[in-house]
Amino acid sequence: MKVQIKKLIDLQNCDSRIADVKDKKEQGPIKIQELEEGLIAFENKLKDELGRLEAYKQEGRKIDREIEDIDSQIEKSNNKLSNIKSNKEYSAALKELDELKRIKSLSEDKGLNIMEELEVMNAGCVESKANMEKLKNDVEKNRDKIMEEIKVLEKEFKRLEKERVSLGKSIEENLLKKYDFIRERKGGIVVSPVIKGVCQTCHLDIPPQQFNEVIRGDKLMNCPNCIRIIYWGEDESFKDDAAAGENVKE
Ligand SMILES: [Zn+2]
Question: Fewest CB atoms less than 10 Å from the CB: which of 24, 50, 110, 247?
Answer without folding.
Answer: 247
